[in-house]
């Protein structure tokens, strides 16, 4: 990764409309951003579009003087990445809601099923963090954790599928829970304080 002084020089060139600088900026940070977007669980057919939106937004904001250098360039970029990931999942939710067939009230009015549900706010930042943590977990531990917590399978059922004893599954489930708790705590701490990418 470039030093802070390298970044400041690059930013000045991007602000000045230097296309080579814009390409260098994208080349430098694309691997990190692609990795972050993939870890958020965005499908392969969509993640490139999300990554491109990050760069379009970042370059636009740089040219409008919205990066003031209070934080490292990487930390600032990471905030944009998080926002685009949240936007992606939010737009998917909106598309699904639009497909819900309307219900007919006693007065003959159409009411979307979504409107009849409780208005429960979703913390999309937490959703993204959970997806990233699950991607970082060992495959077997993630599998056991999801079977237990998401599908409600018993230790005996999980053990039968994995050809493992109930005691072994229990030990691995405890390990999976502790691993998830440690990783999610670290991820949320990073989101709160911002990782320094330089």
Strand line-up across the major sheet? 1-2
Q: Count the helices. How many? A: 9
Gyration radius, to the nearest Å?
22 Å
Sketch the topology as an H/E string, one letter per element: HHHHEEHHHHH
Which helices and strands occur, and which strands form pairs?
Blueprint lengths: L3 H12 L3 H21 L4 H20 L9 H26 L3 E3 L5 E3 H4 L7 H13 L2 H11 L5 H8 L3 H28 L5
Antiparallel strand pairs: 1-2
Helix pairs in contact: 1-2, 2-3, 2-4, 3-4, 6-9, 7-9, 8-9
Task: Give a verbal description of the structure.
This protein has 198 residues and is mostly helical. The protein folds into two domains: 4-95, RNA polymerase sigma factor, region 2, helix turn helix motif (Rna Polymerase Sigma Factor, Chain: A), CATH 1.10.1740; 137-193, Arc Repressor Mutant, subunit A, CATH 1.10.10. The protein has nine helices and two strands, in the order ααααββααααα. Strands 1-2 form a two-stranded antiparallel sheet. Strand 1 and strand 2 (110-112) form a beta hairpin. Helix 7 crosses helix 9 (166-193) and helix 8 packs across helix 9. The chain is elongated, with a radius of gyration of 22 Å.
Write a short abstract of this structure.
The chain contains nine helices and two strands, in the order ααααββααααα.
Can you give keywords for this protein?
198 residues, mainly alpha
